[in-house]
Known about the structure:
Order of helices and strands: HH
Strand content: under 5%
Number of strands: 0
Amino acid sequence: MKNKLTLNRTILVLLIPAFTTGMGNGSVFGAAVMCAVGRGPYESWGGWDGEAYDPGTFSGFVDIMMIAFGIAFAIIMGITMSKHGEIESQRDNVGW
């Protein structure tokens, strides 16, 4: 039997639940780092336009961490789902 967990079948799982779970982890990490090391003055919190993605601002750092963690978690989930599909297809060939 062939691997049923291909990228075409798992793309929605990777884009929506996996990416948003990773983003949640990134927001916690970004906030924890900012609590530990502090941040710049309030004027540079980075909430508007391009400043929202400037890693030198509070909001920008958290946003960048959310995107990075979301991409990383989606890649990890894609690899594990593919490997799981390979193991399941080998098991189906052997039978009981």
